[in-house]
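Fold it.
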Amino acid sequence: MLVPMKTLPPAFALPRSLLRLLPVLLLVLPALLQAAPTAVWAAEDPKKPADEKEAPTAATEAARKNAIRGLRSKVRKLATNPRPEKKQAELLKHLEALQALGGVEAGRAAMGAIPHPAPEVRDAAFDLIEREHDKSYVKPLVAMLEDKRYRRDADAKRRVAHALSVVAEPSAIEPLSDLIRFDEDPEVVAEAADALASFASAKVAQRKPAVKRLVDLYESTWNLKESVRQDHKDKILRSEAADRYKVYGKPLRHALQALTGVQLTRPAEWRRWWNSNKKRPKWGRHSEMPKNRRER
């Protein structure tokens, strides 16, 4: 006799946490089930050799990678749709599935979602990228900084800079240093400076180009901000420099302090320190401090 659904005892009700996971399970389950027959057979056959009993793990891993490949293709297609707002919900579900599958490949697949402009989509993509933080991510992330699609996309550049600091691969120092310039969005410069500060343990030779860029921008922005010339063009530039200095002045200084191990403050002090130490093979206690430390 069939029991009506409304009379089922509470034990048959699914927990809310499981109900929330159902959309993700439905996305990845078909690929994973391809490996299920092998897994069940090997687990139930006590006569199966030990080396062959390990096959379910390999089969399940292969199924996981196949599922990621399928999702990667869908994510790329949805992220570049001419009407991205129409595909946002579906794209978020695919990113949630990638989060559940995990692994380096899932993080690489999530990069395909970055062209989508919605903050929620980029949050989900970069959360996974930073969670996996594999050094193989450096090359595709740096490629985004050079991609014309993101030339004026300050949000994407800031996120990439932060992700590179989380991956913490010294090869990211140079591309991050390229963002330290006056014609870059000030928020991007600030994020890049914060990212560079995380490479304090890199070799001095790797840090030197970054320190030079930091000193140059720190000093030039300060000098423009403090300029006393009164012509119209200079007034505009002075105002812009003042606004930019408010955003990235402190990050530039903190990055310099982290990368050199020297606790100076004023731009003029940093210029003197750099001129005295740029050719030295070691910094820190080996550094030569500027003789004149009077602040301007």
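The first helix runs from residue 16 to 33.
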